[in-house]
Amino acid sequence: MVAYYSRTGNNEKLVNELQAKLGCDVEKIVDTVGRKGVWGWLKSGYQASREKMSRIEPTEKDPGEYGLVIIAYPLWAGRMPPPIRTYISENKNKFSRVALMSVSGRAKVTAERFLTLKRLLERSLPQF
Ligand SMILES: Cc1cc2nc3c(=O)[nH]c(=O)nc-3n(C[C@H](O)[C@H](O)[C@H](O)COP(=O)(O)O)c2cc1C
Hints:
The protein is an alpha/beta fold. The chain has helices spanning 10-22, 37-49, 82-91, 111-121; strands at 2-4, 26-28, 68-72, 97-101. A four-stranded parallel β-sheet has the order 2-1-3-4, with helices on one face.
């Protein structure tokens, strides 16, 4: 299953392509916070940098039913968007295996992101 958050459609496009190729289930994470325009951009960057969470719409799929959940999101200020942080926290005891995927500006998904994930999931990382 692929769970994703996308503010401007880039991650959504990638997820749609993946779904077309793999035929996997998809969960769209819907934020309840308005993030349009310059203020929305500033607020988003600030909240991400402060590692805030936001209220998300109830999700439909049970991550516990999948052997692998791929989570896709844009990096904001080098970090996870608040709705993704909420989604991971709310489901931390349900995931079996998790992978991260990101369409961002120029930043890469580095070890730091995995450490964030590890912290949110409150479990240790597998050895690579
Ligand atoms: C508030 C904000 C902060 C961002 N910070 C970063 C960043 O630190 N590094 C980066 O590579 N891209 C950054 N971006 C760019 C987004 O990650 C990029 O545009 C992404 O493709 C947007 O994905 P989406 O269309 O799925 O929302 C930021 C975008 C926003 C709105």
